[in-house]
């Protein structure tokens, strides 16, 4: 099973945006709950593609949110995991991943790319 950080061509993105997307993808690729859903294909045969779409959705959410709130990010992660990957996460990892993503985004905004 491939990891989420496969080679993606995002040449239309500015380099700094591309870096943020790569960091989001890398973080999600280390999320055990998501990896279990992908490896066991709980979202169907295209679970890997759905996991990549999750990274893109999170990236897009950050780019388009005027004032991102962690609760909204947690809801996004929960909804995508449940609806796309048929996975209910109840181990507290959604909150942990959301917190890490928020920190990553703050670092990105402050130039720590």
Automatic annotation (TrEMBL):
Name the domain of life: Eukaryota
Return the InterPro entries for the record: Pre-rRNA_process_TSR2
Q: Tell me, what's a Pfam family for it?
A: WGG
Which keywords belong to this entry? rRNA processing
Family membership noted in the UniProt record: Belongs to the TSR2 family.
PANTHER family associated with the record: PRE-RRNA-PROCESSING PROTEIN TSR2 HOMOLOG
State the protein's name.
Answer: Pre-rRNA-processing protein TSR2 homolog
| Protein's organism | Hibiscus sabdariffa (roselle)
């Amino acid at each position: 099973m491939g990891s989420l950080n496969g080679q993606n061509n995002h040449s239309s993105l500015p380099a700094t945006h591309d870096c943020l997307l790569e960091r989001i993808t890398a973080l999600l690729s280390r999320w055990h709950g998501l990896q279990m859903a992908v490896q066991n294909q709980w979202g169907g045969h295209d679970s890997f593609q759905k996991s990549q779409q999750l990274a893109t959705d999170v990236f897009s959410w950050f780019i388009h949110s005027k004032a991102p709130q962690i609760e909204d990010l947690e809801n996004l992660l929960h909804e995508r995991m449940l609806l796309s990957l048929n996975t209910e996460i109840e181990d507290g990892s959604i909150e942990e991943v959301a917190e890490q993503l928020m920190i990553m985004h703050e670092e990105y905004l402050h130039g720590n790319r």
